[in-house]
Each structure stands twice: as C-alpha cells, then as structure tokens.
Amino acid sequence: MKKLRLDKYLADMQAGTRSEVKQMIRKGRVTVNGETVRRPEQKTDPEQDRVAVDGETVRYVAMEYWMLNKPQGVVSATEDRREKTVLSLLPDSARKDLFPVGRLDKDTEGLLLLTNDGALAHGLLSPKRHVDKIYRAVVSGKPGSREQELFRQGLDIGDEKKTLPAELEILDVRPDCSEVEITIREGRYHQIKRMFEAVGMKVLFLKRISMGPLTLDEALEPGQARPLTEEETAALKGV
Length: 239
Ligand code: URA
Prior knowledge:
By secondary structure, the chain is an alpha+beta fold. Helix content is 21%, strand content 28%. This is Pseudouridine synthase.
C-alpha cells in the first residue's frame, strides 16, 4: 500500500475531520513510531508505521471497493458448495475479506459492488436510506401508462407492505416483448420480477445499471471487475 499523509491517514480512520486532525498533529498529540510529529503532510506507511493519538494506537484498515459486471450463472455470495460465486471473478490481488453489497439473482447481470467496508455496505442497504437502483429489463408483453401508474403507486407483491413508488420507463416496444428501465428504492427478494408478475408480465432479462451514485462501467464485459476510482468511492461515501 502506498504511503499516506499523516492527516489523511487519521482522517480516513475517522480520528476527526481533516482540519481537526491537522490541529491534533500541530498540538503534538500524534506520534509516529513513538516520535511526536507536528507536520500533517508527513508521509506515513500504513503497513509499517505505528501511529498513535494521545498514546492510543490508530491502526490503518485498508478498505477495498470493486465494481463487478456480474454475468449470469454466478451467485452473489462469498462461498457456495455447488455454485460459482461472484468472489471467484475477482483477481488474486483483491483482498480476501470482500463481500457483495446486496444480491443480484443468479440470472441477473450487471452492477455489483464488492467491498470489505461493512459500514458503507450497511448504509447502502439500509431500508431507511432509499438508495436508487436502476435496472434495464426485457419483459413479456407491452407495458404502458397503466403499468407505469401501478409502479408509481406501489404494488402488492405478497409482502406485508406495498412496494415504495417506483419509476417505469418504456424504452422499446417490440411485437413479443418490451425493453424497460425501472428505478426502485428498496432491495426486496426478487423485487423486480415480482413487481412485473403483479402486473401480469414476466421478466425475461434483467441487468442492474446503477446503485446510488455508482453507474456500471460499460467497458466492463460481463465477468470483469475493476477497483472503484477515488471519485466513485468518495461519491458512495457521501450517500
Ligand atoms: N430484482 C430481481 O427480481 N432480481 C434481482 O436480481 C434484482 C432485483
């Protein structure tokens, strides 16, 4: 891992805001390998140096964030006795403690975030947060304004509560199927398939294209993954 400025190291580890940790450093409260350091810009090696604030060690926990274009036929799990998992698609260089943030069905493609940042995953999946997820689908039949209105109103899909208002955009209507884009703010089990079932249609193909501020990189072929850019990670943390 590359060296970091001392103030970034501490701010990344939530010791305070960037300006708060700068103050802490200037006041002589921070030591690196036992020596007081007063320069916030001093480079620190997160793997070698021992950083402490007021004598308390602050360990650097490196988080990793990967975007996967999930192909069909793999399961969104860390391990599975019989099925191939999404983790098996990451390169060997990836950390071994990563997990998928939420699930896509085995036959669903598209954007899947993998990380070891439990707090971020929890925030993105929290039912209270209502993070937008956008899917492209091919469905049987010809959805129209009636279905758009039903999606907007919320549907009874057999759960205790109706679904939250969802948007249904109709992209293309063909003789035997239609291409649509759906925006949902929850992540219930088989949610999109069950929403179309509730209006008498069947999902024939499903692909997630975005989750909150994160959009699937179209340069990724199904089965390919890449680390998130710093901008993508920062945008996700702002959710
Ligand atoms: N809705 C579904 O039905 N399946 C998915 O994989 C994701 C959303």
